[in-house]
Description:
- By secondary structure, the chain is α/β, with parallel strands linked by helices.
- The chain has helices at residues 37-47, 62-67, 72-80, 84-94, 110-115, 118-121, 141-152, 211-215, 227-235, 255-267, 273-282, and strands at residues 6-10, 31-32, 35-36, 52-57, 98-103, 126-129, 133-136, 155-161, 171-177, 182-188, 199-207, 240-244, 248-251.
- The strands form four sheets. A seven-stranded mixed beta sheet has the order 5-4-1-6-11-8-12. A two-stranded antiparallel sheet has the order 2-3.
- It is globular.
- The model has no long low-confidence stretch (mean pLDDT 92).
Amino acid sequence: MKRVRKAIIPVAGMGTRFLPATKALAKEMLPIVDKPTIEYIVEEAVKSGIEEILFITSPYKKNIEDHFDRSFELEKRLEKSNKLEQLEMIKNISNLASFYYIRQGEPLGTGHAVRLAKNFIGDEPFAILYGDDIVVSEIPCLKQMMQIYEKNDCNVLCAEELDDYLIPQKGIIEYEDIESGKVKGLVEKPKLEEAPSKHGTLGRYILKPEIFEELEKIGMTNGEYLLTDALLALMRKQDFYACKLDGKYYDVGNQIGYIKANVEFALARKDLSEAMHEYLSKLKI
Length: 285
């Protein structure tokens, strides 16, 4: 069984929910307090053992490439100003992993984006992490998933127990055996009373390379190639298990989730917590 050491992060979306901020700035570069959203996701991957990361990007996402590259002029200025702590922080960003980039020329869906990574992945298992999902946990979310992969030699989905009102909006896991987490299938946006479980999938996957064979076979749905269609096809041939999330999940792909993340991350920081508590206590809510 091969170790999971490569990850794909699709970041080609336009981020229209955050216009006008995302007119010139990739939504993944919007900060949670003072660190870009995408950096939290990269850090999770690296802490889980990922060594090589491929961004599926677009012509409008150059600032992501710039962020994970060296910035010699900034480094020189920080060194000259004796801001050594900030200098070390900036240097560490480019050293987190080996970074690669492929542009998705057309917005043809996540299935199409992942298919572009076939040559990068080769015959290895790999991870997919979406840029809208931040997870705070003692053991990194992806690492939790890797433990299930290593135990069962399987594909792995990340699962979160959902409130009832969210079930008709999400892809819901159908279990073959809920105790072990073995997955039978996925049901897209079921009615609450017809849902096979309360567990929805999050933007984290560990997949075997055979997924590319299925991605090449699927057709378009509403103008896009859907990763879910390929997952369902592969489920008929290989085992899938769900990793039930042990941690706090933030959906930063919408304004409310993004604001919640900023508030809670600030409250958790020693240098900001006192001022934040004082400010919040004065709000007339």
